[in-house]
Amino acid sequence: MFARVPNPIPARMKGLNRAEICDTNFIEFVGALPPGPQQGPQPAAPILPGSTLDAQSFRELFESQLISRHLDLMARVLRVQNKVFYTIGSSGHEGNAMVARAARHTDPAFLHYRSGGFMAERFRKLPGMDPVMDSALSFAASKDDPASGGRHKVWGSKPLWVLPQTSTIASHLPKALGTAMAIEAGKRLGQGLPIPDDSITICSFGDASANHATAQTAFNAAAWSSFQKLPAPVLFVCEDNGIGISVKTPEGWIAESFRHRPGLDYFHADGLDLVNGYADVERAVEHCRRTRRPTFLHLRTTRLMGHAGTDFEIEWRALEELCAVEAGDPLLRSAQVAVESGLMDKAEVLALYEHTRQRCFAAAEDADKRPRLTALQDVIAPLAPYTPDKVQAEATRADYSERRLQVFGSEAGLPESQPAKHLAVQINQALHDLFAKYPETLLFGEDVAQKGGVYTVTKGLQKAFGPRRVFNTLLDETMILGMAQGFANMGMLPLPEIQYLAYLHNAADQVRGEACSLQFFSNDQYRNPMLIRIAGLGYQKGFGGHFHNDNSIAAIRDIPGLVVGCPSRGDDAAAMLRTLAALAKVDGRVCVFLEPIALYMTKDLHAAGDGQWLFPYPAPDQALTLGEGRVYGEGNDDLLIISYGNGVPMALRAARTIEQQHGWKVRVIDLRWLVPLNAGYIAGQAKGAKRIIVLDEGRQSAGVGEGVITALVEAGHGQVPLRRVTGVDTYTPLAGAALLVLPGDADVVAAAAELV
To answer: What is the pairing mode between strands 530-536 and 493-498?
Structure first.
């Protein structure tokens, strides 16, 4: 503790408003300090004897601490006036300013919400920037907020390489590690990085968050990389305040858990004391930069004013304990050093304190007058940018013919010169094409390298393009997607593979909460362009469970900004991959390519040996248009069947039977694009149809079919005789029992009979 807890505790220290109490504590503490020496240290001299921190650096760090504190105090006052929002604060964590000072502004930073000190100090790295005004604009949700454009109160800055975070607990750690790995990979591949080659990544989080599964995933992956001598220059900064909301961290737990963890180099620093802590912080930063190893900085902090503005700690925490915590306020120690060293006298400290307060309130008053988001279009503008002409031009760009010849060996070896092939082969050929077109492309995941994936879809890619571009990862989907974000941050085009759709579900927040939210919450200043390949859907003969026959795509259908394409045939798959890659490259979109496993090797449609599900490979200047489906039986209006994936060949087979039984002319629509669902296209195809069947191989609840039905009804087609054929709301059983819960040809035929 830096201050004495009075006994008895005075009445003013018993109030609910701990912000006011901390404010008064500081003023009274400084006023009671004994005078320091008349002559203070020179700017370049140690602030106190034996310290590695010079006087000028100390003063600037102290100023950054004060900025952070007064932003918190300002927010608490103005929140009740509805002038600022989201008052979770940084008080007690101001020592993280030391990390910012020891690092560079080009070291990508992935921060937690108590990072006011870090941000205030990092702003010093570039001239002409104002941490107070920028923060006030963010707090006020102003359109002029340079971080998010008024979409959230996040710590972020494009010029300072602080990627705006909206993470759920610890979900930013995998992409911080992924970015560190990407720095090294980019150097090995000769890819021009947007930051210096010796950059590190910085990732801060709390002691409670360190226990989260996502955090542990990142620590394990870092150690896994370190064990294999793979560089991963990430500085994990655990800001240990000893409590998570109201749950205390067992004393000594963080040190015990991480001090001897293999593959993580452990450092401890006192974040409550600039004089004693800075050397250790600097040592950790330089170690990470020099060794390129994962480094764990255990930074001692405390938490003042509760978890957030609505947390009245005095209601659940003993007053004596609360006052003791407040007596450990790091600003008290900094003020003490300023006076004790002779750098400032008490009046100067208090004057700076009040000047900083006035500066923050003036900025808040200015921010309150700035425009806020009032139009829906403005809100969603950065969510899902789409420039159709540019995307189409990029998707059909075919100026890499020489590289294609090298990859495929000869004109005769080009895929478009080959006989018609099934889906798996054409995806493989299309991936070779993408790698030839984009030298910054990387493909990684479980078993994708030498083995070529469990279904051989990536066979030959590593041989053709080398182990630096095609490689296996550890068995951890969360980390695979974290790596993808890291590579995207560093300017590359990642193609991560999730081996089965079921495996995505335990890692889905890396797509939902991280990758897809970045454009939105950074006002399109940062992007995560990537193309995620996922094998899934049902009808694998003999397989059951939800591991290999998983139709549950509801989890990715509701992710804002995501694009999901699902081909049913090989030529569409190749053309779709080009479009998805172009969407990533041109508009920075996060894309999912959902591959129907049961159709990988399918050759026949109606009868064994007919070869009607084999198709020629499309020339490299051909691509699909986002949202545009494929029509079979153009102009046939007696019955319209709308489907996707496995449902398309099923619908075509059923259509033949229906035509024979009822004499109807049947039209089948392959949606191809599942997210966003093109309601206008669906409505247009339904125009003139006398009957409609929506065939959805997914479950009855929350399936694509629900979206199709909604589009039809909202477009005024609800009066048309309509049936939905879906799977059952259950897990898929083994072997032949699977066909009892998945829709089949006969179900479609039976639904048609109900429409007679």
So the answer is: parallel
The reply to whether 607 falls in a domain is: no
**CB-count burial class (<10 Å; 0-12, 13-18, 19+) for 502:** buried
Nearest to 434 by CA among 495, 387, 489: 495
Strands (E), 278-354: 295-300
Closest residue by Cα to residue 532 from 572, 478, 602, 592: 592
The domain that holds 697 is classified in CATH as 3.40.50.920
- List, in sequence order, every residue forming a beta bridge with 493; answer none if it has no partner: 441
Report pLDDT digits (tens) over 359-374: 999 999 999 999 999 9
**Three-state DSSP class for residue 206:** strand
Residue whose entry in the numeric block shows the structure tokens 């049961």 = 598
- The Cα 741–Cα 723 span in angstroms is 17
- Say if residue 420 is in the same domain as residue 374: no
pLDDT tens-digit readout, 183-214: 999 999 998 999 999 999 999 999 999 999 99
Whether residues 363 and 395 fall in one domain: no
Asked if 546 is an active-site residue, the reply is no
Task: Mark residue 33 as left, alpha or beta (left: phi above 0; alpha: psi -120 to 50; beta: remaining).
Answer: beta
Contact (CB, 8 A) for 47 and 55: yes
Instruction: Identify each DSSP E strand in 227-337 by its residue range.
Output: 234-240, 243-244, 247-248, 265-270, 295-300
Indicate if 244 and 264 belong to the same structural domain.
Answer: yes
Which DSSP state fits 713? Answer: I
Tell me the average pLDDT across 233-241: 97
CA distance 637 to 383: 37
Distance, CA of 136 to chain centre: 25
* 111 domain-assigned: yes
Distance between CA atoms of residues 360 and 357, nearest Å: 5
> Number of folded domains in the chain?
3
CB count, 10 Å around CB of 563?
A: 25
Are 638 and 594 in the same domain? no
Alpha carbons 113 and 309: distance in angstroms, whole number: 13
pLDDT tens string 531-564:
999 999 988 876 666 667 778 888 899 999 999 9
Range of the domain at 725: 630-753
Q: What are phi and psi of 693, to 5 degrees?
A: -120, 130
The reply to whether 618 falls in a domain is no
3-class DSSP assignment, residue 196 = coil
Catalytic residue among 355, 548, 606, 662: 548
Same domain, 313 and 404: no
Handedness of CA 677, 476, 107, 195 (dihedral sign): negative
Residues 252 and 306 in one domain: yes
Instruction: Please tell me whether residues 135 and 172 are part of one structural domain.
Output: yes
Residue type, 48: L
pTM of the predicted model as reported, rounded to 2 decimal places: 0.95
Angle between helices 477-489 and 213-227 (to 10 degrees): 70
| Helix 173-189, helix 477-489: angle, nearest 10 | 60
